[in-house]
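Retro notes
What went well: the complex prediction finally ran end to end.
Inputs used:
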Amino acid sequence: MSLRARLGRLPMLLAVLGALCVLSAPTLEPTVATAASLRTILNEIEEEVMCPVCGTLLGLAESPQATREKAFVEKLAKEGKNKDEIKQALVNQYGDAVLALPKSTGFNLSAYVVPIVAFIVAVILLAFAVWKWRKAAGRQEDREPEVEGPSDEDRKRLDADLARYDL
Amino acid sequence: MRPRVIIAIVAAVAIVALLTFGLLSKGNSRLADGETAPSPELPKLTEHGKGSLKEYRGKWVLVNFWASWCIPCRDEAPELQKFQEEHAGSNFTVVGIDTQDLSDDGNKFAKEYGLTYPQLHDGNGDNGHEFGTTGVPENYLLEPDGKLAWDEPGPVDAKILEEHVVPLLPPAKKEA
């Protein structure tokens, strides 16, 4: 093939290469993004569910059961299930105890309400105690005897002494 | 007595009561010989619907708690299947309870080892805790009235089954 013919094909080759680059770019980008979001979902779920056998967060567990649970979560995430759907699937398999945080409905709501109520009651009790303590301290101050000045006799003696030393 | 002292005593008693309750509720006592086994309804593992150990009243039942992720269960499963085939007369059956396991994994395990005896799925492990299990595998032999006759807190093999289970089974039912 002559050099001229080869050079004639160059623009076509460049065009093909350019097209390949353009086509490959959008396919690579989502793959990377999907892997990253998958990892994010897995990390988040592993912090929010338990390994029922080990009694620790799934993210901290290394037992064979935890390994299977992690694989189950990964499989569902790869199928495109969102976090809530995956957690529900885990509850279907292992029951509510698989959730690291109790649900905010029914009796489980008390897990969130009781600490808040306890905190408010504690603050009220503390404020009441401080108020009472300060009130008692104030009363004590009121009761303290006033400092009496010298008696008339002492005053006269003091005046006499001062007069004696008056230069 | 001053109100403050009363409040302090009540608070102390409440804290001690809570601690005691916490300790008692955490410790799951193991099913004792002669005690009736808990038999709540559980999903069936290898078929649809629910089942319970109550369905097997009238038979001797060897309850086997297992899980697909449990390594010793892999050695035990063929032994139990063989025992079931040898003794599955009208009055004995093994019942497997797949505990704290994914149902798909449990199903695969049952298929892989060709387990034909009934299987229940105890996903959250509550039934196991009611028996007082501390892990898997564990085995409990129940009399026909559902009371515990013998238990093994670990895997069983042909030798253990011959020594401990076979003598308890009624002679007429030993051979299928």
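What we learned: Chain A has a mean pLDDT of 84.
What to try next: split runs per interface for comparison.
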